[in-house]
Amino acid sequence: MSITNEPAVRLDGLGKIYGSGASAVTALRDISYGFAAGSFTAVMGQSGSGKTTLLQCAAGLVHPTSGSVRVGGADLTGLKERELASMRRERVGFVFQSFNLLPALTALENIELPLRLAGRRPDRDWVRELVGRTGIAQHVGRRPHELSGGQQQRVAICRALAAGPEVVFADEPTGNLDTASGQEILSMLRQVVDALGQTVILVTHDPAAAAYADRVLFLSDGRLVDVLTEPTPERVAAGVQRSSPGRTRPAS
Ligand SMILES: Nc1ncnc2c1ncn2[C@@H]1O[C@H](COP(=O)(O)OP(=O)(O)OP(=O)(O)O)[C@@H](O)[C@H]1O
Hints:
CATH class: Alpha Beta
CATH superfamily: P-loop containing nucleotide triphosphate hydrolases
Number of domains: 1
Number of helices: 8
Number of strands: 10
Distance between the termini: 32 Å
Shape: globular
Radius of gyration: 18 Å
Order of helices and strands: EEEHEEHEHHHEHEHEEH
Bound molecules: adenosine-5'-triphosphate
Strand order of the largest sheet: 6-7-8-3-9-10
Strand content: 25-35%
CATH topology: Rossmann fold
């Protein structure tokens, strides 16, 4: 059971260095932030600023070099790979730019696959509610190649939500979609937060996409340099400008 006021994800002094010696790359520097349960947060910053690394550390996909990550109150620091894999299955959902659906399986089989791999019986009522809410109920018998990109991404969102995760991580989920389909996917993520109380963390390059969130974090050269509340596309675009390298300032 999660404790009231415990953030869904808590980063403390998070740092990540890839490689070592002369080829070492510092991707994250001393990032501390709590992602409130039931909130929608966008992470922005220029290419190479550390967005994907932050998401992957927070999701237990990449080991931080320093600091700690807590998901739903559970400390990931020191977990072995097998324990991390089980944590990911139980507590987090993922939505990627490339949908990552298995082509041989129907949409419904794709949605239920992670649960089945975890040895759990899918909750049919919950899956029915998800496919209804995301508007793909009539398509669940089709295979991915019989669906549009937007429909495939809806399937991926249902798959991410099927196990009732603490948090859904979405890395550029609209990157392969046309503008209208992208907007539908973002509205859907917004609805998932508002109607289902889900926590969503979204990595994006697009100020219009980030404006769907409650808060926007700005990264620059691996540092958290700004946090914007009540974002609009214009305010987010201005935040990107402010947080560009050369104009770095500490987070308030
Ligand atoms: N596996 C890796 N090995 C070495 N360096 C890496 C690795 N992954 C990322 N990096 C480096 O870490 C830094 C941050 O990368 P990251 O992918 O997190 O940035 P990003 O903001 O998501 O970039 P983009 O917007 O281009 O996807 C970059 O300098 C990148 O080259």
